[in-house]
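Reading is simple: the C-alpha cell line describes the chain's fold. The lines below illustrate.

. . .
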Amino acid sequence: MACTSCASDKADTLNDPKWRRALWIALAINGGMFVIEIVAGITGGSKALQADALDFFGDTANYAISLGVAGMAIAWRARAAMLKGATLALLGVYVLFAAGWGALHEATPHAEIMGVVGIAALIANLVVAVMLYRFRSGDANMRSVWICSRNDAIGNIAVVLAAGGVFGLNSAWPDLAVATLMAVLGISGGVQIMRQARAEMRSEPSPAPATYQQSLHGSR
C-alpha cells in the first residue's frame, strides 16, 4: 500500500546524509558487481548470472536516479520511481525470453563459476540490503530501492542453489529455472513500484488555476 504521509516526505529525511551515503555505496557495489557478473556469466555460459548482471546494471542506474531526485518534490520522486519500476519489469521480460532461448539451445554452464560469483554477489547484496533496510517504508522512490536490493539477495541465493544443481545434475535446467524465477521477481517488483508511484502522483495536490491565483492576489 502506498504511503502518502511517510517520514520520507519531510525535507530533513530527503536530505539525510545517511540516505545519500547509503545510495552512493550501493551504486559503487552494484556497478562493480555488474562488470564481474556479466563477464563471468558470458564466460561460464550461465543465463542466471547474466540475468543477475543485468539486474545489477539496472540497480546502478536506479541508485543514480534516486540520488538525483532525493531533494525534489514527491511528484518528481514518484515519476522517477515509475521509470525505475518500468525498467525493472522490462528487464524481467528480457530474462524470460533469454531463459526460453536457453531452453531451446541447452548448454551446461560452468557450475564452479556460478557458485563462486553467486556467493560474492550474495555478500554484496546483503551488505546493500542491510544498509537500506531502515528506508524500506519510505515513499515509492525509497521503497523501490529497498525492493531492488531485496530481490537481488533472493536472486543470489537462488543462483548459488542453481550452481549446486548444475554440478549435481550436469544439466542447464537449474540455471534456466533460476533465471525464470529472477524474471518473475523483477516483473513483480516493478509492478509494485509502479502502483505505489501512481498512487503518490494521484495524491499530489494540483496547483490552483491561474485565474484563481490572480483573483486571490487581486483581493489582497
Remarks:
- Residues 74-104 form the longest helix (31 residues).
- The chain has a mean pLDDT of 76.
